[in-house]
Specification:
Layout lengths: L3 H19 L29 H19 L4 H26 L1 H21 L6 H29 L5 H22 L5 H17 L4 H24 L1
Helix pairs in contact: 1-2, 1-3, 2-5, 3-4, 4-5, 5-6, 5-7, 6-7, 6-8, 7-8
Amino acid sequence: MSRLPALILLLVTVAFGAAPLVTPPFTGYDPSLFPVAIGRPAIQPAGYAFAIWSVIYLWLILHAGFGLWKRADHPDWARVRLPLAVAIGVGVVWLWIAGQSAIWGTATIWIMAFAALAAFLRAPSEPDRWLLSGPLAIFAGWLTAAAAVSTGVLIAGYGVLSNAGSGLAMLALVLVIALVVQGRKPRMPVYGLTVVWALVGVIVANMGDMPLLAGAAVAGAVVMLGALAVLWRKG
């Protein structure tokens, strides 16, 4: 079997990790892109939560490097490469896209999320737990939350729902997706814990001025942690 797919994935992953170095930093959609002015999107986590990207970049590069070096022909690794390459390939240009258009930024981040989820669901939790399934879990978990955040900002910015209403709707969406996905991967809690990380970021961002949304995020985090505990015991 050719080593080319593994090499392509490594190159794309390195480009993904380097993209923030050559693209203007993304700190949220430009408010001028929307007809409805929103001071602070309620669904957007506190800024510190985005530091998780450093872990995601490094872990994905380790995954791709080890995959080329030791698992280029392994069928468990081979089956995740196409959807993962799609997610990462879109990610290389996503920062630029998001800086130009909230609509296209939202559309493309959902492409990334679906592709990352497909890769994660294809990856067995054992063996190579921390080099195959683990990095895909954190990537898919964060993109699950990020896609909902992008959507929430978009629908609030276009007046489809209020800022608080879009936040509550997207929290519900994140929780539903996360519970379904985690139910299919009960032995890889990194996915659910990443979603909890995002929810805690929402709690921190809203606990001062939007206690209802913060409370909903607390409830979501508790439900997710409870599901992780139950699934782990049953798994």
